[in-house]
Design a protein that fits this description.
The structure is a single chain. This protein is mainly β. It is built from no helices and five strands. It starts with 8 loop residues before the first strand and ends in a 5-residue tail after the last strand. The model has no long low-confidence stretch (mean pLDDT 91).
Length: 68
């Protein structure tokens, strides 16, 4: 089941790790609601993260360079 959270701001950070680290990449998802900041999730992976920006026009979702 998906958890839906309402927030004011969100920051997603992709961080390449140094060679001695246990993984190659870390991805951090930070959120802010009112005046409270919180690190919501941290992912560790050895594969380069992929990003995708989409646009929902009401009846179809398409990839969007404009959103980027």
């Amino acid at each position: 089941m998906t958890k839906v959270i309402s927030i004011d701001e969100m920051e997603i950070e992709f961080e390449k790790q140094n060679p001695e680290s246990s993984c190659k990449w870390c991805v951090y998802i930070r959120v802010r609601k009112k005046n409270k900041d919180q690190l919501l999730l941290m992912f560790k992976t050895n594969h380069r993260p992929l990003t995708k920006f989409t646009s929902n026009s009401g009846n179809i979702v398409t990839e969007s360079k404009k959103m980027l």
